[in-house]
Design brief:
By secondary structure, the chain is mainly alpha-helical. The protein has 2 domains: about 100 residues, Orthogonal Bundle (DNA polymerase, domain 1), CATH 1.10.150.130; about 180 residues, Orthogonal Bundle (hpI Integrase, Chain A), CATH 1.10.443.10. Helix content is about 60%, strand content about 5%. The chain has a 3-stranded antiparallel β-sheet with strand order 1-2-3, with no helix packed on it. The longest helix is centred in the first third of the chain and has 22 residues. The termini are far apart. About 25% of the residues are buried. The mean pLDDT is about 90.
Length: about 300
């Protein structure tokens, strides 16, 4: 890749403190753009790209059936690159000022019903001992705090204040926030810690959640775990940790929680990201209205 692109990626890593996962996404997006502009216009770097060239890529991506969210994410990567390039004198003009985003189809967040979550967390289908206690606590934390998958995997014992029923979470761009924890979950955490120490001894991993072999837990491991348990209580095709995050926010809103409070707990930068959950509540109201009103 061109020198300016590498400088941009270094800036994102050192100055913006983006995560490794985010950096990989930016690198892949810019690499794909570079390959396209090289093959179509024989451009060696992104600095000389013009707006019509970006539109030609956009048209081709739409024809190939690329998801609109993916297209907009890639365009966002290119916009960020050119903002950096202009600021640092690496490009003379910003073609992205003349390129708009693709209008996205409205997709409501997928969530699990309250009775399904109760059936999941209250039943006795968890294995006895360490693994069952760990799995149960993971599901509880996702559902009662709305934290992200990466945030849960990064939790350390020093982050969980069971005495005050609080947990410190490190989110995107290393921003930290404090989330209240239900007393019962704090009790389950204490029980889990005792079982973890009994299983792995004093040399147990500092991170809260570990695999059956005592190593720090990782994203795919948790994803498979959540998918397995949700498949037992819901027929929804999507059964991921993020669905539990959606479920937390939707159920909180249905029970009358303040939207700004939900925003702070979820760690959203803007209220608009949280407002998407109001649509689910409106749909619930519509269904109740249709079932209850004699003229509906």
């Amino acid at each position: 890749m061109a020198v300016s692109t590498e400088k941009f990626l270094q800036y994102l890593e050192r100055e913006k403190r983006y995560s490794a996962h985010t950096l990989i996404s930016y690198r892949n997006d810019l690499q794909q753009f570079s390959e396209y502009f090289l093959s179509q216009y024989e451009l060696e770097g992104l600095e000389s790209v013009k707006a019509p060239m970006v539109r030609s890529w956009l048209s081709e991506a739409m024809q190939q059936g690329m998801a609109r969210t993916s297209i907009n994410r890639k365009l966002s990567s290119l916009k960020s690159f050119f903002r950096f390039a202009i600021t640092h004198g690496l490009a003379k003009e910003n073609p992205m000022e003349k390129v708009g985003s693709v209008k996205k189809n409205k997709v409501l967040p997928v969530f699990v019903k309250e009775e399904e979550m109760s059936r999941l967390l209250d039943h006795s289908g968890f294995d006895a001992g360490f693994s069952g206690m760990r799995d149960h606590l993971i599901l509880e934390l996702f559902y009662t705090t709305g934290m992200r998958l990466s945030e849960l995997c990064g939790l350390q014992h020093q982050d969980f204040d069971a005495a005050k029923n609080l947990i410190k979470v490190t989110g995107k761009r290393a921003k930290q926030r404090i989330i209240p924890v239900i007393p019962a979950v704090a009790d389950h955490y204490r029980d889990y810690c005792r079982e973890k120490e009994k299983t792995f001894g004093a040399m147990a991993e500092a991170h809260i959640f570990v695999t059956d072999r005592g190593k720090k837990i990782y994203s795919k491991y948790v994803y498979r775990l959540v998918n397995k348990y949700l498949s037992g209580v819901t027929t929804r095709s999507r059964r991921s940790p993020h669905v539990l995050r959606h479920t937390f926010a939707t159920h909180m809103l249905d029970r009358g929680a303040d939207l700004n409070a939900i925003k702070e707990i979820l760690g959203h930068a803007n209220l608009s990201a949280t407002q998407v959950y109001t649509h689910n509540s409106i749909e619930k109201i519509k269904n109740v209205y249709k079932q209850a009103h004699p003229k509906a």
